[in-house]
Specification:
- This protein is an alpha+beta fold.
- It has an 8-stranded antiparallel β-barrel.
- The longest helix has 26 residues.
- 34% of the residues are buried.
């Protein structure tokens, strides 16, 4: 479950960033460069993310171009599943019996980090891993 949270948070932040870039580009009166596409599928949210839980423990999330994800919890345990954007939220459906979880993210800060809150009220801080 913690891994799912990490993935969701990462996706939400990326979606918020892409959507904000699009709105900003549309609002400019000067010639506008093509805006980044809104994050509507896993391909636009591919990457690795560090996830800080409310209690300070750290986890990792990887979102793959094929719409899958892998969460690695603080204990090293992995959770895998499918990712999809639904109604502006990042939704994670693990390969087990757990129900799908959806997250809403804030706009990323200058360092790219953001917070993401699950529909259950859990909040995590997500930071993209720079390669």
């Amino acid at each position: 479950m913690m891994k799912k949270l990490m993935m969701i948070a990462a996706l939400s932040a990326l979606a918020a960033c892409s959507q904000q870039a699009e709105k900003t580009a549309e609002a400019e009166a000067a010639p506008v460069e093509a805006a980044a596409p809104a994050a509507t599928d896993s391909a636009s949210l591919v990457g690795d993310f560090d996830v800080k839980m409310a209690d300070g423990t750290m986890a990792k999330t990887t979102i793959n171009a094929d719409g899958t994800y892998v969460d690695t919890g603080p204990d090293g345990k992995e959770t895998k599943g499918k990712f999809a954007m639904k109604d502006g939220k990042e939704c994670f459906d693990d390969d087990g019996d757990e129900p799908e979880e959806c997250w809403t993210s804030t706009k990323p800060g200058a360092d790219g980090s953001f917070t993401s809150t699950s529909d259950k009220g859990e909040t995590v801080t997500v930071t993209p891993v720079k390669k």
